[in-house]
Amino acid sequence: MSLFISSPKLTCPPKSIRLYILGGQLEIVGVKNAAIDAVYAYFNDSSEILCPNLHDVQQVFENTPPDAHMRRLLIAHALFYLFSKKPATVGLPEDWAEVMQSSGQVGWAMVSMLNEWRWEMGVNVPPMKIKTRQSFHEPVYIDLDGGVKHEEPMQ
């Protein structure tokens, strides 16, 4: 049995991915957050654990900065899929091999996120639950002089 399976290309809503990238290019945080909402709903409104197509993930990685919130959302869902029962029974989708072998950036993001979770085998591996939709939103700060600021406020 092969580790990878051939499966129909399940993709995140492609328009939402492109919208997020465009929102980043135009520096419109509200557009990016709306795209995150659409992708979040796509994965969380399903009765089964869906796997992001890693070509979609790679497109986000190629067109966004390292701190892009969409990256974290997609990587979290890829890890949730990896730890679900489905890969053990049917294998991993072929796109995982294609993307992981062509670029280590997505794989590194997955390993880094796992490290952030600070799991210790047999000690503190909790039931997996995705964070709230708003936890993936980018913050918007309103300047009292009327402008919108996207950076962290001064402490």
Task: Summarize the structure in words.
This protein is mainly alpha-helical. It has one domain. Helix content is 52%, strand content 5%. It has seven helices and four strands, in the order βαααααβααββ. The protein has helices at 14-25, 29-44, 54-63, 69-82, 86-90, 94-102, 104-117; strands spanning 4-5, 92-93, 141-142, 148-149. A two-stranded parallel sheet has the order 1-2. A hairpin with a 5-residue loop joins β3 and β4 (148-149). α1 (14-25) runs antiparallel to α2, α2 (29-44) runs parallel beside α4 and α3 packs antiparallel against α4 (69-82). The chain starts with a strand and ends in a 6-residue tail after the last strand. The model is unreliable at 1-10 (pLDDT under 50).
Detail the topology: elements first, then pairings.
Elements (H helix, E strand, L loop, with lengths): L3 E2 L8 H12 L3 H16 L9 H10 L5 H14 L3 H5 L1 E2 H9 L1 H14 L23 E2 L5 E2 L6
Parallel strand pairs: 1-2
Antiparallel strand pairs: 3-4
Helix pairs in contact: 1-2, 1-3, 2-4, 3-4, 4-7, 6-7
Summarize the structure.
The protein has 155 residues and is mainly α.
